[in-house]
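Feature request disguised as a bug: please show the residue count (206) next to DNA-binding NarL/FixJ family response regulator in the output. Example input:
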Amino acid sequence: MRKIRVLIVDDHPLMRVGVAAIIDGQATMMTVAQASTGEEAVELYEQHRPDVTLMDLRLPQMSGVEAIRTIRQRHPQARFVVLTTYEGDEDIHQALEAGTQGYIIKGMPYDLLLQALERVHAGGRFLPPPIKRALASRMPDSDLSHRERQVLELLVAGKSNKGIGELLGITEATVKSHVSTILMRLNAEDRTQAVVSALQRGLVHF
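Example output, currently without the count:
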């Protein structure tokens, strides 16, 4: 029986080695390559054409979501399982929008990893109950525009409305308008609540 061929993408060497040991210990699957960056993942995908790519989201330069999008643009049939520490509903939403078919958290039992690889390889999706619950909690109409995301990132960085306006080249009144929209979309009463919600949900990362 042909083994499931897996590309592992993670910027931590110990994590890659540990996951590879689990995969290579199975009779039905094998590791074909390991990447430490999104750019390397794109390159190694082209070289090896794995059956499933196991992708971390937090990577230097090109993020995991960007790497998934890049590979899927060239190879729409590519299959992915996200393995990450990010549990926010926005992280999950963005990964699914990019084209991943499975999403698991690094603290989950390793047998879920094997189940995810098998399910996704077979053409299915794998979203454990905690992931489904997080996704279900996502507020409708909570998408932010590119400019609103820029404002939110600067809010999280502690910038004032005036400071945000100077950095983005927009008026303070425009910043206030964006902040009002952000508060509404995040269901937050003030800037502090908006910052906390943004970090919890994965809209912004440090």
